[in-house]
Amino acid sequence: DQQVKQNSPSLSVQEGRISILNCDYTNSMFDYFLWYKKYPAEGPTFLISISSIKDKNEDGRFTVFLNKSAKHLSLHIVPSQPGDSAVYFCAASVEGDDMRFGAGTRLTVKP
Amino acid sequence: EADIYQTPRYLVIGTGKKITLECSQTMGHDKMYWYQQDPGMELHLIHYSYGVNSTEKGDLSSESTVSRIRTEHFPLTLESARPSHTSQYLCASSPVLGELFFGEGSRLTVL
């Protein structure tokens, strides 16, 4: 039972343009959502999070949007840079426990 | 900066061997986790611990075992490795409420 879904396995964008990564979830009890970035042969690193009391959180070039009614989460990267090329995982949890991950989206930013 | 370490990073062993994957963190986190991840797939929780002498199985059935004798140390053991155990194993820790900090992973290949 996959409670967090990332339906796009890959995304390719041009440097300087916006990257939009999407994530859907099924468990309405999730109240804390995170994005992780993973380079090959490394562990995931935390990127940005949002709690269910907010609908937007911004950190530099990264913005996460939460639409609770649609059970949808998205990560915007503006402007995209070649160094952003990595696999991005969406994760969700209930009060920080039982964190569930999506299958990841491989982002490629072309120079 | 996260201080969580996994050894070995890469391991190739024969079927039937016993192996232990080590994980240590210096952040004093009570919560620790083991995830298993195959390429293009979500991270699956196989074991977690909320503190010393606490261990629980995660969603994904696993023939591995874990122990938590010290806060900083959470090793994972496979008594008899099989080719189906070939995967990447990711250790993580977290404060009571917050994001997970991951180690760099241990990639296991069982021949």
Structure explained in plain terms:
The complex is a heterodimer of chains A (111) and B (111). Chain A is mainly beta and 111 residues long. Chain A contains no helices and eleven strands. Chain A has strands spanning 4-5, 10-14, 19-25, 32-38, 45-51, 56-59, 62-67, 72-77, 86-94, 97-101, 105-110. In chain A, strands 2, 4, 5, 9, 10 and 11 form a six-stranded mixed β-sheet that branches. In chain A, a hairpin with a 4-residue loop joins strand 7 and strand 8 (72-77). Chain B is mostly beta strands and 111 residues long. Chain B is 0% helix and 49% strand. Chain B contains no helices and eleven strands. In chain B, strands 2, 4, 5, 6, 9, 10 and 11 form a seven-stranded mixed β-sheet that branches. In chain B, a hairpin with a 6-residue loop joins strand 9 (87-94) and strand 10 (101-102). The relative contact order of chain B is 0.33. The mean pLDDT of chain B is 92. Classes of the chains: A mainly beta (111), B mainly beta (111). The interface between A and B is medium-sized, with 24 and 23 residues.
Q: What Rg of chain B, in angstroms, do the CA atoms define?
A: 13 Å
- Unreliable residue stretches of chain A: none
- Continuous helix count of chain A: 0
Percent helix range of chain B: under 10%
Mean pLDDT across residues of chain B: 92
Tell me the quaternary state. heterodimer
Largest interface: A-B, 24 and 23 residues
Notable characteristics:
heterodimer; A: 111 residues; mainly beta; 6-stranded mixed β-sheet; 5-stranded antiparallel β-sheet; globular; B: 111 residues; 7-stranded mixed β-sheet; 4-stranded antiparallel β-sheet; 11 strands; 49% strand
